Amino acid sequence: MPEGFRQRIVGPVRGARALVGTYHARDGRVAAIELAYDVFGARGRPLVLVMGIGAQRIFWDVAFCEQLVAAGFQVVRFDHRDTGESTRLDAAVPSPGGVLARRLLGGRVPAPYTLSDMASDVVGLADALGWSRVHVVGASLGGMVGQHLAIEHPDRIHSLTAIMTTPGARRFLPKPFALRALFTPPPNDARAAGEHAANLFATIGSTAWHVDRERLSELGSEAFTRGMNPKGFLRQFAAVGASGDRARRLRGVRVPTLVVHGSRDPMFPLAAGRALARLVPGSTWLPITGMGHDLPSPVWPTLVAAIARHAERAETRGEPRATDQ
User: What is the tens place of the pLDDT at every residue in 27-38?
Assistant: First the structure.
């Protein structure tokens, strides 16, 4: 990492960018990958929030980030490569139907990048911030990226909290109605984007709490204004398919892991979270009744308290051992 891109974070930062790596563009260039990020809190345990497929960092609500700061963390949220204000890659766009068919048949899924590459982006971001080790909280695809961090970069991770995610087995597939909602044609204006976000989470979200359509509409509209990237979404979908089943490697993980999953998640069944918790030795399993594939505000205090307890316990366990890759 060039020295000019390294900085020790001493206070809140919003809308910054960090060089985290490079990739080979279709025209043969070696191009930079930069991640846009925000930091909350002036000090505390370094914690990186990793969002799901195609979702911008604003879907980690500011109030949720502030609750984590109050619990003793310094928090960074960021846009993945190919998302929001981060670098948009000049790379092939795989067909989602082809990706799904190859994955179901156990074939190789061609993809411009993998979840391992996205995990390396997180390491690059930590390097740029001057953080040698971090706590990681990942949701959905972010939880998969977190698993790759624990497998491939265990010396950089204090703890992992994996929320509403999967170890990658083909049997843990979304319900058809959830997959249809995820692949609804992209909106073409801010108003439609707001409606799309509200409809999506009304379909895949929690059943135990009221869906805040107004707040979701605001986030969807803001995401459109900041910059939607449907091609990036499809490349990330291919990355999930290309990365496959992590079961064997997860058995060797020694990073302290907390697995959180909702009982009403139509994107990944509760069994996916339970399987992940069983695969990672010594992990902690936290099912939440009525939670779907979302992060409703009534659940935040429970999540923050669990993440804080997990982080504190993890730091008393010492350094994780490298896994057999």
Answer: 999 999 999 999
